[in-house]
Amino acid sequence: MQSFMQPLKPSLWYTLLTAVVLVGVTIYVLDLKSPFDRFYHARNIPIDPNDPFWEKTEDDRVTFGEAMWFVWGVLLNSGVCEKTPRSFSARILGLVWCGFVMITTASYTANLAAFLVLETPEKSLTGVNDPRLRNPSANFSYATVLDTNTYQYFKRHVELSTMFRKMEGHNVRDPKEAIGALKNGTLGAFIWDSTRLDFEAMKNCELRTRGALFGRSAYGIGLQKHSPWTPHITNAILRLAENGMMERLDAKWINGAGKKPCIYETHKTPARLALVNMRDIFVLVAGGILIGGIFCVFEVKIGKKKRQNLKRKQLAICYANMWARKTLRRKRSALLSPPPVPRKYSEMAVRANNSVNNNKLGAHRNSDPRLSSRSKPHRIRPDHNFTTKSVKCYCSRCRNAVETRPRAVVGRFTYISVAFCILTFLWPCAPLPCFLTAFADYIHYCPECGHIIGRFRRGASPKFYV
């Protein structure tokens, strides 16, 4: 478990867990608030409920559990077979999360491999019984000083004969030669007096002493036999050892031989990744969440506009069907109405006389084109082809035949023209489309009630409002 957690620091693990939960919640919220889903366009198509190939489905939005499953599935590379985000904003965040997971997984895998490969203890010599000294290889050499106590030690012991034969070709006369050979790398190890080796290791930080002591022999002071100074010197050495003077002398002249204390580097291990090293990808995730939120706002506005247009369309279809039913009802009532009840003779004669006079007057009017034109009612043919000028049509609110009142407004064509001027570096001309009527749309108002009847759109077909 420690090796699994070791490539990343705890702060990065906690931040990664927080990012997983935050991205899952954000995807759920973005998909919940978005008005678009997979069957958005299918719901606008009239489908026969009795169709055997049509199956009614419930809301297809991603639930919270499915959103968390998607986030964890992408992170653990387990394959996402369940529902994926449906809305455009949630899908953008999903793509950003996939990029984040790719970078995080690659960094974690590389650092874990470095820990597994480089996390090996440093191998050093353990003493004269080390296998590399007892069974030396051709690339490793060691030596001692000729005709010294150490040289005689290896020569006397039969079990060290292999080492003695290996040392024969590399032994030196002066310890300084061996120290120089150690520094330039021509000699792998130098076996000699421990006190002198400690002194040289403190002077040269490149050198180190390894292994346990062997062939112990103490230092002594030479005196004549039965010398009167023997007990005094012996007692003096014992007193120095008891009061710690020997240790202080050793620390001063042996351990303190170097000008500066040696700082030995420990075994290097790969650096653990922290939040500082991976903060850029978390900024990427934060940017993805922000972009997803912005697109969600646009989706909500567009969906609201589509619902309003759909509601107006349904309202117009409802009114059209109602007017068609009323017209058909009037025609049927006129055809099925009973004949008029006969009246008295005098009334019929008078009505007949009036009808004769009316027939004569009608014949006279038909012969006179001026009278016939005045007698016919004046009808308006509605014109819904809205332009920059006023048109004649019926107002859907006040039900009057009116002549519209156009007014110039800034439309989509104006914004496109401004953007074109900016992209082609015509910045001084960019504000002109906002003030010229040649780039403007026209809204047609009803002069009676002020209702917006229609709109002339440049670059698009005219639009009629119910």
UniProtKB/TrEMBL annotation:
Transmembrane segments: 12-30, 62-80, 92-118, 281-302, 409-427
Annotated site, Crucial to convey clamshell closure to channel opening, chain positions: 125
UniProt keyword terms in alphabetical order: Cell membrane, Disulfide bond, Glycoprotein, Ion channel, Ion transport, Ligand-gated ion channel, Membrane, Receptor, Transmembrane, Transmembrane helix, Transport
Site keyed Interaction with the cone snail toxin Con-ikot-ikot: positions: 155
Disulfide bonds: 205-262
Gene3D superfamilies (UniProt xref): 1.10.287.70, Periplasmic binding protein-like II
Renumbered residue ranges of the record's region Disordered: 357-379
A GO cellular component annotation in the UniProt record: plasma membrane
GO molecular function: ligand-gated monoatomic ion channel activity; signaling receptor activity
Localization (cell): Cell membrane
Membrane topology of the entry: Multi-pass membrane protein
Pfam families: Lig_chan, zf-LITAF-like
Domain annotation LITAF: ranges: 375-458
Binding of L-glutamate, residues: 150, 193
Entry similarity comment: Belongs to the glutamate-gated ion channel (TC 1.A.10.1) family.
Name the record gives this protein: LITAF domain-containing protein
Source organism phylogeny: Eukaryota, Metazoa, Ecdysozoa, Nematoda, Chromadorea
